[in-house]
Amino acid sequence: MAISEPASVQAPHGEPLVVLEGVNKWFGDLHVLQDVNLSIARGEVVVVIGPSGSGKSTLCRAINRLETIDQGRITLDGMPLAQEGKALAKLRAEVGMVFQSFNLFAHKTILENVTLGPIKVRKASKSAARQHAQELLERVGVSAQAQKYPAQLSGGQQQRVAIARALAMEPKVMLFDEPTSALDPEMIKEVLDVMVELAERGMTMIVVTHEMGFARTAAHRVLFMADGQIVEEATPDEFFNNPKSERARDFLSKIL
Ligand code: ADP
Ligand code: MG
After folding, report:
1. Among the atoms of ligand 1, which is closest to the Cα of residue 67?
2. Cβ atoms 34, 228 nearer than 8 A
3. 3-state secondary structure of 139
4. Model ipTM?
5. Domain ABC transporter: where (predicted)?
6. CA of 53 to the centre of ligand 2 (A)
7. Does ligand 1 lie within 6 Å of residue 29's CB atom?
């Protein structure tokens, strides 16, 4: 008898949206990305885990070109990443990024934080940008804070604003680099809930996190990185229940 698989393992098999081929990067003598090959389908949610220093942040930063690569190729929606100028600004808009530190503009209101990019980069009208921003702030549960400044919000609220700000650019893919690791424990869930909802709506997401609950709920695939390499990739169930490599077993024994 066929046993139906949990929703979390039915990964989308659509066309690839983000593709890395033979990507290598060095910081001086340090080979920080070692021949990374990776293809992420439209609508796929990929969680990246691994020890500190394994290259997870560098991988994310390479995908929105905050870092250059030394060898290989990265494409977004079939196009090589733009290198400079207006095309680079457009690329950054298409690849939304949420960092550990919320990085909101301190001297702008919450609403302004979300409308600035669409007005400057996307050339949206002020009224259209405001309306879209209000909708997004509502979606992430901070619409009541629209006229406040970042410092007046909790960490969890600020991180939800950061997500709304990235979404306002209508990105093709969202990158999250340890988005909850700077938060007080009671605020982690409110941010993860927003991310789960985003995943359910079909957003393509690359999420560096050690939140196993999120990985099990929302991820189609887990990548385990160590020493600049993707050592293992599997469904969350496979990975957490039956990690194949010694490195992964060792890592999981430390964090679980
Ligand atoms: P992770 O996010 O997995 O902790 P990172 O991608 O931040 O790992 O870093 C991978 C390695 O590259 C680490 O050893 C780190 O110290 C080094 N590194 C990261 N950024 C730089 C940089 N700008 N210059 C030199 N070394 C760096
Ligand atoms: Mg990192």
Report:
1. 23
2. yes
3. helix
4. 0.98
5. 18-252
6. 7
7. no
